[in-house]
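Question (not urgent): is this output format expected?
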Amino acid sequence: MNISYLKSTDEFEELKKTNSFLVLDFYSQDCPPCERLAPLYEKMAQSFPEVKFVKIFRQEHRVLAESLGVSGSPTLLFFKDNLLLEARLSGYIEEAEFTAVLEKMTGTKGFGSNQAEFTTDFYDLCIIGNGPAGLTAAVYGTRYKINQILVGDLPGGLMTSSHKICNFPSELEISGSDLTKKMFDQVTALEVPQKFARVDSIKKTGDLYNLILSDGEIIKAKTILLATGTKHRHLNLENEKALTGRGVSYCATCDAMFFADKVVAVIGGSDSANTAALHLAQIAKHVYQIYRGDKLRGEVVWIDQIKDNSKIEVIYGAQVTEIIGDKKVTGLKLSQQGGGEKEIEVDGVFVEIGSEPETTLIEELSLETAAGNFIITKADQSTSQAGVWAAGDITTNSNYFQQIITACSEGAIAIDGIFKYLQAKK
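Got this back:
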């Protein structure tokens, strides 16, 4: 495979000279988007053999990363004929946008995936999503001896980006990545069939659901459990995407170390924003926390710690109207309640304003939803579509509490309902 790991800056200079097409992947430790990107990076290396793909461990090559304006993990840089192209990708990178950049750079379509090479597998249940709900469901599915498969592209989902979890039973304190590993190791030990891919499309034919995976494979299943979780909300500001990886981040766990002894801002006022601010305060020189409300929300213990931390300055009643910067973030423009604007100088901004469901599969299955596109589920986690269940943060159950423990419980409840459904069909 045409992938190598960079050893030195001198090697990087040589790679630029000897390869017409070069892609750099700056990755970090404890970085969920980096883990999600890894199999896609390998797929692109196979699809575009004329391109040299290089992985760069950012912690070992900090000076090189900074010289290229990299301040987020993962960040992909593209070189053609020794020149750095304007296009760059960062954060949760999608296959379509990665492919589009490579096709434009090389002028070719790549080999792509050939579905004819894959066989079609049949299961009683396909669990889509390998976050807390999906992983728990897989454990219970094993106990019920359901013929199942677990499909997901990021074990742990958004849980992996949690700096500290202090409310999960049996764990006094644990990081999201460590809790993910424990759950994932249990599922692996139970020998649950798994596919590390995304489900791109679902169609129903007769009594079976046909699932097309991102690698081209087809899975047929009698029932489906949607446990796809949610995705980060964006500010939807004009240059937000352009500055992602250049100071804009959605994962403090991944990118905090880029901002050692610098000034950063956290946008949001709930638990995810509060814990991000506390984590960044251990590394950055000063942390602004910007919230549109008049008081922070969430667990009181985090709010109390923020109040006692002299490095965190909370700006209430304010909304970000502009991210200032060209090649990197240099500041924020704020609109304040009651009128008036102000600007603050920052080196980085961490967006923590909540999450929302990905709607593609929900729409394909024509599921009934509530405000915000959350799936309406019954007591057994079944949906409006026969043979389809949902669990975790994408549902209306658990009073929208959206906690790891409630996602786990919904996953377990869903399996009980699916088992009874399958038994009745025999």
